[in-house]
TrEMBL record, chain A:
Domain ABC transporter, chain residue ranges per copy: 24-257
Gene3D superfamilies named in the record: P-loop containing nucleotide triphosphate hydrolases
Lineage: Bacteria, Bacillati, Bacillota, Bacilli, Bacillales
Domain of life: Bacteria
InterPro entries: AAA+_ATPase, ABC_transporter-like_ATP-bd, ABC_transporter_ATP-binding, P-loop_NTPase
Protein name stated in the entry: ABC transporter ATP-binding protein
Pfam family, one: ABC_tran
Keywords associated with the record: ATP-binding, Nucleotide-binding, Transport
GO MF, one example: ATP binding
């Protein structure tokens, strides 16, 4: 069964136009002008149960709007939307029993009361029975090591501690889908890693489907088997992470450290006839860029046969760079490339 | 019915948490109680000062006006406890907490109300009962066995008038991005309802009876117990008006939520 099935989903907002100056403000008082802004433009995708899917894109690309539609907070302008077998905005109260939501920048917990009190309140709200609640809570508290935090009021927690509590709060009622909107924003590397491990664990053990938006591509690399990339309200990429790298990664770079000084002409001469590009870092080091379709070892063997080498490093283009490249080149070009 | 039961059990839980929170901020609690009481005392003193100048307002004596005020405090206290929506627009719309409300399996208005319960306001209701009893004795009113029951029905009806009106007002922030001065305006009009409506001119009387029925949170239901202040019919309209205003309030709220979910932020 599909956990999320989205078909030609669109969301338009009416945005007020504020006219300039005092006169404009007076005019606005009597007659407001509106412009239609389309935040999400007819997107379609399916996510099967048990998948961890990353949802990325620049600020304002439409990620949050999509998540809000998927969680039933917003009503789509048009298109079909089925999450867990429900149309989210139609049977809201029944539907939200099956989902968990964490918005990184907003708290689910009550500020002034102990963490455990918040959990108890949520138990009542979601009507989880006491035994299930106990079992679930123990398990989550154990994995995230929250024992000492349980009796502290939320306002006295650090961001990392709060975030871990938020995750528990979102999972107490055993949702089958978890929506995370920037769950690792502002966290240090240790907490980030902990949270990633935790998400992987619940996905593995409970088969929880996870959809997360993030700006930290390391989240994606650590967690997601699949990435959906959004730009200006449209999906510009939907597929595996490896594929993304392959399609967009333009090649590899190898850095050589030589024992004797070299010149750019000399090194270029060694690989004559090959479609590679040399750059000289200093007298003893040079880098060669090798396109993806070429074999690295061919180049290596030529260089190794021509000079004494003290060190070799191979750089793979990392996801950050790839994504930056895609954002920069803009969606039009990217779209064609993906379709091709 | 199951919804009611669920709301009740949630209510217990929220009150429990409220008490726990307030135990950490004890000073805060007492400051609130005392300022509430001082506010009521000021209003009473105002009535006494007025009657220092004149023996009667219309055909209302001092004790009668105090009686009406005492009655008013009962529904007002209940309303303030459960329907503390003054900061709704800022907290839920501007700061976006409505998103969180909508991802939880309980009614949106129920959740907002429960998150803002304010039990100290109930002390005002108790004081109101005290004032009513004092005025009752001073006026030497007859006492019937059914009076307490009628009082409960009237107080509930009046509370619903307030809850309905202020729910509708809170829901306005779903429609207008910058909440205007409408709440303070209504709050001022509401204060007229505490005094005998017969002392006003016809326009205001009409306004307070049929448009913003604040007279049903004061003079009309209170007249039931007073001798010689006419229409028991008007008094019996209180629960009816309460039900109608509440229904309207809920309707405005619902369309507001729909609108919010269309617009988002």
């Amino acid at each position: 069964m599909l956990a999320i099935d989205v078909h030609q989903l669109r969301k338009q907002f009416k945005v007020q136009k504020n006219r300039e100056g005092l006169k404009g403000a007076m005019l606005d008082l009597f007659k407001r002008e509106h412009t239609e802004v389309t935040a999400v433009k007819d997107i379609s995708f399916q996510i099967p149960q048990g998948e961890i899917c990353g949802y990325i894109g620049e600020n304002g690309a439409g990620k949050s709007t999509t998540i809000k539609m998927l969680t039933g907070i917003l009503v789509p302008t048009s298109g079909k939307l089925l999450v867990n077998g429900f149309v989210p905005h139609k049977e809201r109260e029944k539907f939200v029993h099956g989902i968990g939501v964490v918005f990184g920048q907003r708290s689910q917990l009550w500020w002034d009361i102990g963490v455990i009190e918040s959990f108890r309140l949520l138990r009542k709200v979601y009507r989880v029975d006491e035994a299930d609640f106990r079992r679930r809570l123990d398990e989550l508290v154990e994995t995230l090591q929250l024992q000492e935090l349980l009796n502290r009021p939320v306002r006295k927690l650090s961001l990392g501690q709060r975030m871990r509590c938020e995750l528990v709060a979102a999972l107490l009622h055993q949702p089958s889908i978890l929506f995370l909107d920037e769950p690792t924003i502002g966290l240090d590397i240790v907490v980030k890693t902990e949270i990633r491990e935790f998400l992987k664990k619940i996905n593995r053990e409970h088969g929880t489907t996870i959809l997360l938006t993030t700006h930290d591509l390391q989240d994606i690399e650590a967690l997601c088997s699949r990435v959906i990339m959004l730009d200006d309200g449209r999906i510009i990429y939907d597929g595996g992470l490896e594929e993304l790298k392959e399609r967009w990664g333009k090649g590899r770079e190898v850095q050589f450290q030589f024992t004797d000084p070299i010149s750019l002409d000399a090194v270029s001469a060694w690989t004559a006839g090959m479609d590679v590009r040399w750059t000289k870092e200093n007298d003893l080091t040079a880098k060669v860029w090798i396109p993806r379709e070429m074999n690295v070892s061919d180049v290596l063997s030529r260089v190794v046969g021509s000079a004494e080498i003290s060190d070799i490093k191979i750089f793979e283009t990392n996801t950050d760079e790839i994504v930056r490249e895609i954002y920069k080149t803009g969606s039009s070009e990217a779209k064609e490339a993906v379709r091709a | 019915m199951r919804r009611m039961a669920q709301s009740m059990s949630l209510f217990r839980e929220y009150i429990g948490n409220y008490i726990k929170t307030k135990l950490t901020y004890r000073a805060d609690f007492w400051v609130e109680v005392i300022s509430d009481l001082m506010f009521s005392a000021m209003n009473l003193i105002f009535i006494f000062v007025v009657f220092r100048q004149t023996p009667a307002l219309g055909d209302w004596s001092e004790a009668e006006v105090v009686f009406v005020y005492g009655y008013f405090m009962i529904p007002y206290g209940i309303f303030s406890t459960f329907s503390n929506l003054w900061n709704f627009s800022d907290r839920y719309i501007t700061k976006g907490e409505m998103d969180r409300i909508l991802t939880r399996p309980a009614g949106s208005l129920t959740q907002v109300m429960l998150e803002n319960v304010d039990p100290p306001s109930l002390i005002g209701s108790l004081v109101g009962i005290g004032i009513m009893i004092a005025a009752w004795l001073r006026l030497d009113l007859p006492f019937h066995w059914y009076d307490p029951l009628v009082l409960i029905v009237m107080a509930l009806g009046s509370t619903l008038v307030y809850v309905g009106l202020y729910t509708a007002l809170a829901a306005i922030s779903f429609f207008s991005d910058a909440p205007t001065g409408i709440v303070p305006l209504i709050y001022n009009i509401q204060n007229y309802g505490r005094y005998p409506i017969q002392i006003y001119n016809r326009t205001i009387r009409f306004l307070l009876t049929w448009l913003l029925p604040f007279a049903f949170v004061g003079v009309y239901p209170a007249s039931f117990f007073l001798v010689g202040h006419g229409g028991r019919a008007m008094a019996w309209l209180t629960p009816v008006v309460g039900a109608i205003v509440l229904a309207l309030g809920l309707w405005v709220w619902r369309s507001g939520v729909k609108r919010y979910r269309g617009a988002g932020s």
